[in-house]
Design goal:
Distance between the termini: 49 Å
Radius of gyration: 20 Å
Low-confidence stretches: none
Number of strands: 5
Number of helices: 18
């Protein structure tokens, strides 16, 4: 409030979530000084965003917002980053960049004004300095398309924070039982500001992705009716092992007490819950025809062809110029190797790959 010169956070529905998250961070997360500083910055940035949101009118609905978005959903480590970035190179699709997601709302007048791109670049530099393994596994850049889970922070209901980034089991358990409609309403309001500041081409469609959506798809669908879902599928045991590696790297950046075996148990349970919810949602006849399954193995073997298939499903043409952009991106961003710490996380040794859990199998 002092920094922004404002005091209206809107309806106080966010307060219980913020209180519970802060309590869990204080008592369960074993934060290092760097981890404490980072999450304090995240929470203050979210509060600043709420203040700015309620000090500025929501921009008029754009043509892009009138079209239901394309949302990539699935477990973490299923290829969503590469697919998201390839899709974003098509001129008819618009993906929010990291700098926009960290600072989605411009301050009213000159109050609190700063350079949002410079802030994002500092965020990336700090990530590379303090967590090089995490930065290698999930490459990040200020101008790169990024996960819209950052927009969930304004309501303090974010499954990435609760399940992946920090050890906060009481908050995570509470969050899994919540209706996140209010969080997605703020998500949509922030996207309206993002599009007002940097408009998308006429007729374009938003393309979004975040692992946080997996556990709360009915809430997302209420706020974004008619959304199209690209459902990323991977062998479940492979996905769990890869997610564990990501979570170990993420938490070591922030916590003094990281227990890989505990992470193995947590990620196994969260994965099973997430997949059950995903396929219950996609199996609904009112949703099924808006979903396209994409297998991780297909995406890794042929990223250009797989991306073209997604665009064909969306009714978008792919010309040689777009294919050239894809090949250039892939040449400059090779898929990083990633070890799965199965034994360290108490997981059984990997056997031969099994067929992934799929929409068809689950239904």
């Amino acid at each position: 409030m002092r920094g922004a010169g404002l005091d209206d956070f809107g309806a106080p529905g966010h307060v219980p979530a913020l209180d519970l998250l802060v309590s869990a961070l204080e008592t369960e997360a074993a934060l290092t000084p760097a981890g404490r500083a980072e999450v304090r910055g995240t929470l203050l940035r979210a509060l600043r965003t709420r203040l700015w949101l309620h000090a500025r009118p929501v921009p008029a609905v754009s043509a892009v917002e009138q079209r239901p978005p394309v949302v990539l959903v699935g477990l973490p480590r299923t290829g969503s980053t590469v697919l998201h970035r390839l899709l974003a190179l098509h001129p008819a699709l618009r993906a929010p960049c990291l700098w926009e997601l960290l600072s989605p709302v411009a301050p009213p007048g000159a109050v609190g004004a700063g350079d949002p791109v410079a802030e994002a670049e500092r965020y990336v530099a700090d990530l590379h300095r303090t967590a090089p393994e995490l930065a290698r596994v999930h490459p990040t850049g200020a101008y790169e398309p990024e996960e819209c889970e950052h927009l969930m922070n304004a309501d303090f209901r974010n499954s990435v924070l609760g399940l992946l980034s920090y050890r906060v089991p009481s908050y995570a358990s509470w969050l899994l039982a919540q209706d996140l409609t209010s969080a997605y309403e703020l998500h949509r309001a922030q996207l309206a500001h993002v599009l007002a500041r940097r408009p998308a081409p006429a007729g374009a469609r938003l393309v979004l992705k975040s692992p946080s959506h997996l556990w709360h798809l009915p809430s997302l669908d209420r706020v974004y009716p008619g959304a199209r879902f690209v459902v990323l599928e991977r062998d479940v045991e492979e996905a769990i092992g890869s997610v564990c590696g990501l979570v170990v790297a993420a938490r070591r950046r922030r916590s003094a007490g990281v227990d890989p075996v505990e992470i193995g148990r947590e990620m196994t349970a969260a994965t099973r819950t997430g997949l059950a919810r995903l396929y219950a949602f996609t199996g609904d006849p009112s949703v099924a025809d808006r979903c396209l399954p994409v297998r991780f193995t297909d995406l890794v073997a042929d990223p250009v062809g797989t991306t073209a298939r997604v665009l064909a499903w969306l009714g978008l043409p792919v010309d040689q110029a777009v294919r050239g952009l894809w090949r250039e991106h892939l040449a400059h961003h090779p898929r990083p190797p990633h070890l799965h710490p199965r034994a360290a996380c108490g997981l059984p040794a990997a056997g031969p790959p099994s067929a992934p859990q799929t929409m068809e199998a689950s239904s």
